[in-house]
C-alpha cells in the first residue's frame, strides 16, 4: 500500500524534482523563519526550517538559488504537508519574471543531471569486462 501511495504522489507531480541545498527565508501570518530548500521543482519544493510550520499555512518565500544573481521571491506558497521541521510547499503565485528565473535554474539542473547520467553511462561502456548496457 505504501508503494502505491508513493506512486500516486509521484504521478500527481507535473515537474521533475531535483535535490538541491539553498537558503530560504519564509514568513506567513503566524510564522517566520529560515531554512534550507531541498527537492526543488518548478511547482514547489521541500524546506527544512528552523521553526514548525503547519500544513495549510500560506507563506512568502525568498529563495537564494546557487548561481542566481539575486534572491527569488515566491509571493504565495501553500504548505501541503508538514513533518517536524520539514514541510512541502506548492508555489501558488510567482511573478512571471521570478518564475522564469526558477525555470531557468531548474532547466540548468536538469541539463547537468542528464549530462552526468550520460557521462556515467559512457564511462561504464569504456570499462573492460563490464556487460554492455541495455538500451
Kindly describe this structure:
By secondary structure, the protein is α+β, with helices and mostly antiparallel strands. It has one domain: Thrombin, subunit H (Beta Barrel). The chain is built from two helices and six strands. It has helices spanning 2-12, 96-126; strands at 22-28, 32-38, 44-49, 58-63, 72-83, 86-93. Strand 4 (58-63) and strand 5 form a beta hairpin. The chain is globular, with a radius of gyration of 18 Å.
Write the layout of secondary structure elements.
Layout: H1 2-12, E1 22-28, E2 32-38, E3 44-49, E4 58-63, E5 72-83, E6 86-93, H2 96-126
Antiparallel strand pairs: 1-2, 1-4, 2-3, 3-6, 4-5, 5-6
Give the spatial strand order of the biggest sheet: 1-2-3-6-5-4
CATH class: Mainly Beta
Percentage of residues assigned to helices? 25-40%
Given as residue ranges, the uncertain stretches (5+ residues, pLDDT < 50) are 1-13
Number of strand elements? 6
Proportion of residues in extended strands: 25-35%
Gap between N and C termini: 31 Å
**Estimated radius of gyration:** 18 Å
CATH topology name, in short, is: Thrombin, subunit H
CATH architecture: Beta Barrel
Q: With helices defined by DSSP (H or I, 4 residues minimum), what is the helix count?
A: 2
Report on the biggest sheet: 6 strands, antiparallel, barrel
The structure class reads alpha+beta
CATH superfamily: predicted glycosyltransferase like domains
Overall geometry: globular
The run of helices and strands is HEEEEEEH
Average pLDDT number: 81
**What's the number of domains?**
1
Amino acid at each position: 500500500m505504501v508503494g502505491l501511495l508513493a506512486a500516486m504522489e509521484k504521478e500527481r507531480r507535473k515537474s521533475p524534482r531535483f535535490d538541491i541545498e539553498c537558503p530560504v527565508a519564509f514568513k506567513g501570518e503566524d510564522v517566520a523563519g529560515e531554512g534550507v530548500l531541498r527537492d526543488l521543482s518548478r511547482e514547489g519544493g521541500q524546506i527544512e526550517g528552523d521553526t514548525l510550520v503547519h500544513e495549510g499555512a500560506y507563506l512568502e518565500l525568498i529563495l537564494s538559488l546557487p548561481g542566481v544573481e539575486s534572491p527569488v521571491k515566491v509571493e504565495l506558497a501553500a504548505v501541503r504537508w508538514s513533518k517536524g521541521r520539514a514541510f512541502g510547499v506548492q508555489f501558488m503565485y510567482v511573478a512571471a519574471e521570478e518564475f522564469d528565473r526558477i525555470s531557468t535554474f531548474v532547466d540548468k539542473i536538469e541539463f547537468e543531471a542528464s549530462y552526468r547520467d550520460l557521462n556515467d553511462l559512457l564511462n561504464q561502456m569504456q570499462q573492460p569486462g563490464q556487460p554492455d548496457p541495455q538500451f
